[in-house]
Amino acid sequence: MFDNCVAMVIRADKNEDFVYRLEMDATTQQELCISFSNAHDELLNEKTKVVFDGSYKPLTGEFLTIENFQLPPEIMDAIRDPIGVKSLQKENGIFPEIKAVFIGERIESDDSEKFNIAFQRFRKEQYISPKWFNLFLSENTFSQEKRYGISIADSIDCFYTANELQFVSFYFARQIFDLSGYYRSATDQEVASFVTNENLLIEDAASFKSMADTWIRRKIAMINDSRVLENYSASQIKSLASKVDIKIDVENRKIKLPNDKESIKVILGFLDEETYKGPFSKNTYLANSKRTIAKK
Q1: pLDDT digits (tens, 9 = 90+) for 216-236
Q2: Which distant-in-sequence residues (6+ apart) come within 8 Å of 57 by Cβ?
Q3: CA–CA separation, 87 and 99 (whole Å)
Q4: Using CA atoms, how far apart are residues 21 and 185, in angstroms rounded to an integer?
Q5: Highest taxon of the source (predicted)?
């Protein structure tokens, strides 16, 4: 994989030139392609594919995939014609900020094309700044290198192939691509509506809204989609919660949500079926993800 490929970068800020080519010598380019190919094998080979829905964290031996992923056309155009892509250079005396490094190949057959592209998120510590004392060893003596440079790791964070984006860490993948359109997360309007739900009692609405981070918004969306608050009364939910040692207060036939974030997460996790009692220890746990087991 990645024979005769060209390394490129995605710039972090929005600009007409979305992609740049990394100009490097042939030997370095070949070694980098081999490194990314090996990194692909380490990330994905011999692992089970799980379709991404935003609620499941893959186990060791699994990876997530977003089907029909809309790859930015600038990236595909760059793979088609790498020579036509501008090389990374200074602009007004400074280099553009880098968001990700990628290497890809285009395979054409039967009037169709397929892309294989490996992406690595770029972190601030990968810049080699001339402001620092960058010391390199030669013949037992360190000397300072004052040129600007970048460091590329021997790993990748996601891989695109056959219209799928494959990755292990959602957190790392979303540092490269905007993935918000591929999972349910409650909007501001949904959060506001949740606060006034007739089956809930939230005394400090403003405080709840301020605490509504990504995790809470995803729980709200899943709870709304499951219609659990419509299908079960507050007393029924309280009774079910007591079976796994989760305390839920009911007032005026409404579930009363506490004001502290950790307690809110426990109750929302229960409403989204992510709390359970260990069958052996009898301890109550809050899961960080879930996936439905297919019935046989």
Answers
A1: 999 999 999 999 999 999 999
A2: 170, 288, 289
A3: 15
A4: 35
A5: Bacteria
Helix (H) or strand (E) holding 235: helix 234-242
pLDDT tens, position by position, 53-72 = 887 889 899 999 999 999 99
Domain assignments of the chain as residue spans, ordered by start: 7-182, 188-286
How far is Cα 127 from Cα 131, in angstroms, rounded to an integer?
A: 11
What is the spatial distance between Cα 113 and Cα 128, in angstroms, rounded to a whole number?
A: 37
The conformational region for residue 18 under phi > 0 = left, psi -120 to 50 = alpha, else beta, is alpha
Contacts for 222 with CB less than 8 Å, ≥ 6 apart = 55, 184, 272
How far apart (Å, rounded) are the C-alpha atoms in residues 221 and 51?
18
Closest CA to 167 of 51, 7, 46, 276: 51
**Cβ 256 vs Cβ 249: under 8 Å:** yes
Q: Give SS3 for 283.
A: coil
CA atoms within 13 A on the CB side of 212: 23
24-44: per-residue pLDDT in tens? 999 999 999 999 999 999 999
Helix axes 261-271, 214-226, angle to 10 degrees: 30
User: 127 vs 238, which has greater pLDDT?
Assistant: 238
Those residues whose C-beta lies under 8 Å from the C-beta of residue 50, and which sit 6 or more positions away, are 56, 58, 62, 63, 64, 65, 291
Cβ-contact 270, 246 below 8 angstroms: yes
In whole angstroms, what is the distance from residue 287 CA to residue 184 CA? 18
